[in-house]
């Protein structure tokens, strides 16, 4: 895309040659696929019609003028969110989750098939989830299906119903209604998915390794960390690679925590295995050495590891072994975190960070001299491409007008009581971050946190 040719830009969307647009955004800094530029963005019918040089004089029914300290960025795409509704709405729900997402600059999320009841393992459960999500969503929402023992016949119907792929576990998922697959069962399902180019996304920890590790109990984080050793991830990831290689199916590693796995992941990609990899803000910003005794807000699976491990994950991002960053927002009620006892063995495992991801990653990236453009690539354009969301993750003519206003030099002190998350517990409470989102637009309409205007999206349609 070039912002130097008005005629070429105007021809991108039918009718975009008219004088006025529904919305014009004028900014000294707009993050486009060509880098950060000064420009004006004309929006019509929910899509970006033109991107022109600053001073072009575009006019619109509404105009937004950004300050010099603000950057217009494409809306983030978070493909790993546990909304938990229906069935566990007290943990989170579509209203609170999508408000939190919008407050953090996320304009599209894809909901995991658990921990809702029923889990999204057949079309009937998908329709039930869609019915509760549709009237509550403040941003666009899509859905993953689930792969569990005995539902192979449901995979193709779910795919045809628009799910983006299928999640499985290689060990107990944490909830009994979503049982895990053995490696052989995963391969059988992968072979089925390969017949229609479906995608298997995998929680890769080996159950046998974890069963033989020390039990997690008490308030010492070191003991919990020992209960989820790197070997469990490494062995399970090796299984995913081998089964994907055999079947030719697309496979994706969820929430990579063990840096030990990076060399084999890189080699598998070089070998042509159809493989992608994600990691999460908690693995890139938090350190095992700094987690206090009884700090169950930090508990997640796989676990937050040591500083040396974290540094290697950052290297994996920079060299492309890791494809993108998503939240794995996995909240629960405060009581399930067992903050009263601080017992890591019994506390629910999951980190709530949906509203904070961009600021968390930007705070760390800035220290490392990593440009904002790269951060947004990891959190917007790359996950959009992974999910096949062709009209998301970029600011250029023809795509959905999903964007956020971000102030990269602003500072904020996190107060968990002021977040939109339903439950007020987070390991980031009291943390000072750099960068703040001041507004989010979905299809050219600003999220007002009162009127849900998001849409439900299907694979291949957005």
Automatic annotation (TrEMBL):
Pathway info: Nitrogen metabolism; (S)-allantoin degradation; allantoate from (S)-allantoin: step 1/1
EC number: 3.5.2.5
Record keywords: Hydrolase, Metal-binding, Zinc
Signal peptide from the UniProt entry: none
Coiled-coil intervals: none
Residues in Amidohydrolase-related domain copies: 71-446
Enzyme class, broadest EC rank: hydrolase
Pfam family, one: Amidohydro_1
Cofactor dependence: Zn(2+)
Family designation: Belongs to the metallo-dependent hydrolases superfamily. Allantoinase family.
Subunit structure: Homotetramer.
Identification of the protein by name: allantoinase
Organism per entry: Zhihengliuella alba
């Amino acid at each position: 895309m070039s912002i130097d040719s008005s005629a070429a830009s105007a021809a991108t969307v039918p009718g975009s040659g008219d004088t006025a647009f529904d919305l014009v955004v004028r900014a000294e800094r707009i993050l486009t696929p060509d880098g950060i530029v000064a420009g004006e963005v004309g929006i019509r019918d929910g899509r970006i019609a033109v991107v022109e040089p600053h001073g072009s004089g575009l006019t619109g029914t509404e105009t937004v003028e950004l300050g010099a300290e603000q950057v217009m960025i494409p809306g983030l795409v978070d493909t790993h969110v546990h909304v938990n509704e229906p069935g566990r709405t007290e943990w989170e729900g579509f209203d609170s989750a999508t408000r939190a997402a919008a407050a953090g600059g996320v304009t599209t999320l894809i909901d995991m098939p658990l921990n809702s009841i029923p889990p999204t393992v057949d079309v009937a459960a998908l329709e039930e989830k869609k019915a509760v999500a549709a009237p509550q969503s403040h941003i666009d929402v899509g859905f993953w299906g689930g792969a569990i023992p005995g539902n192979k016949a449901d995979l193709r119907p779910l795919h045809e119903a628009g799910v983006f792929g299928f999640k499985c576990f290689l060990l107990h998922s944490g909830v009994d209604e979503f049982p895990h697959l053995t490696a052989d069962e995963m391969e059988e399902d992968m072979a089925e998915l390969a017949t229609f180019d479906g995608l298997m996304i995998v929680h890769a920890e080996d159950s046998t390794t974890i069963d033989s590790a020390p039990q997690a109990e008490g308030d010492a984080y070191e003991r919990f960390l020992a209960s989820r050793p790197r070997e469990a991830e490494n062995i399970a990831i090796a299984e995913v690679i081998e089964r994907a290689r055999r079947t030719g199916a697309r496979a994706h590693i969820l929430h990579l925590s063990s840096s030990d796995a990076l060399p084999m992941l890189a080699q598998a990609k070089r070998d042509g295995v159809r493989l992608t990899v994600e990691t999460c803000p908690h693995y890139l910003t938090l350190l095992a050495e700094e987690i206090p005794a009884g700090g169950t807000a930090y508990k997640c699976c796989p676990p937050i590891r040591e500083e040396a491990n974290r540094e290697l994950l950052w290297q994996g991002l920079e060299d492309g072994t890791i494809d993108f960053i998503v939240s794995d927002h996995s909240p629960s009620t405060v009581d399930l975190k067992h903050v009263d006892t601080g017992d890591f063995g019994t506390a629910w495992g999951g980190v709530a960070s949906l509203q904070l991801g961009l600021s968390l990653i930007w705070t760390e990236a800035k220290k490392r001299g990593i440009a904002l453009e790269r951060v947004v690539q990891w959190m917007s354009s790359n996950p959009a491409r992974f999910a096949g969301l062709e009209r998301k993750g970029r600011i250029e003519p023809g795509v959905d007008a999903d964007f956020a206003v971000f102030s990269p030099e602003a500072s904020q002190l996190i107060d968990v009581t002021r977040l939109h998350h339903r439950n007020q517990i987070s390991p980031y409470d009291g943390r000072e971050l750099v960068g703040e989102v001041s507004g989010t637009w979905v299809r050219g309409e600003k999220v007002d946190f009162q009127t849900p205007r998001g849409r439900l999206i299907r694979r291949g349609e957005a």
